[in-house]
User: Fold this.
Amino acid sequence: MILLDGKNIASQIKIEIADRVLEIDRSGGKMPHLAAVIVGNDGASETYVAHKVRACKEVGFKSTLVRLDEQVAEEILLEKIDEINNNPDIDGMIVQLPLPPHISEGKVIERIKVEKDVDGFHPVNVGRMFIGQPAYISATPYGIIQLIERYNIETSGKHCVIIGRSNIVGKPMAALMSRKGYPGDCTVTICHSRTRNLDDICRRADILVAALGSAGFVNAEMVKEGAVVIDVGITRTRSAETRSGWKLLGDVKFDEVAPKCSYITPVPGGVGPMTIVSLLANTLKASAREVYG
Ligand code: NAD
Assistant:
């Protein structure tokens, strides 16, 4: 069994990005610049945004954090997005989700300029990714793809089973794994909460992606000998064993599943670190005008 060490690969990619930033600096170019918008004071969102801003600093990107009050009117948020859209120094923008219920996430996402949508949530980026045109791929699927690529995992002709059909993980993963080329060329099955015979389907997977958000859902009985298992799930639970009093659990029962796998991601340290680094990679692409010219 080989551990898919997302933490290590993410550090390598960060070094590669930081090297590119140094080159840009030496040649007198403009530093990549990411703007992050956060509405309200949700604890988890604060943590995610703080990590993103810190990651920007680590690789030498410029970052701007825009904080808006929980009660902010939708129109004010949209105006802020327009302002960032029109700021030539800012290459990429993210609006941290979820947003308060009085604000339409769809409207907000569609207001972001496609060229600056480094989260890859805008329907144009999603659509372009689906039909194989250059696009920003959202950070979690992009991170998983990069992990598969860095470990040279064979994907052609394999049966990839994905548990979960969310717009940010399950569906884009299905599109990417079934596309022509590497990583891809898989036969893909998407499973969800209404799927029948889920255990049987999972047992037929050469590559199993668990993205349902249910701690320890996938057990050894559901996994074929030699399968590749990618655990996207993150569930925070109370723990007396850690200093913080919390621990993160994946969707896979790691201890019993790992011995059957050819490759498996740990939680934490697997998909999670790859997600942030993919946002950096997208921001670098935005600053180099690699996707939209
Ligand atoms: P979501 O809640 O939007 O979607 C969950 C999906 O799982 C749904 O499509 C649902 O149909 C399916 N599902 C739920 N219960 C099921 C069951 N019993 N059997 C089969 N399918 C079932 O979640 P999401 O946003 O896609 O996130 C999924 C998990 O991944 C969460 O734990 C989340 O925290 C984690 N996540 C991690 C990262 C990361 O960087 N590692 C990024 C995004 C999400």
Remarks:
- The chain has ten helices and eleven strands.
- Residues 139-272 form a domain with the Rossmann fold fold (CATH 3.40.50.720).
- The chain has two domains: 29-113, 139-272.
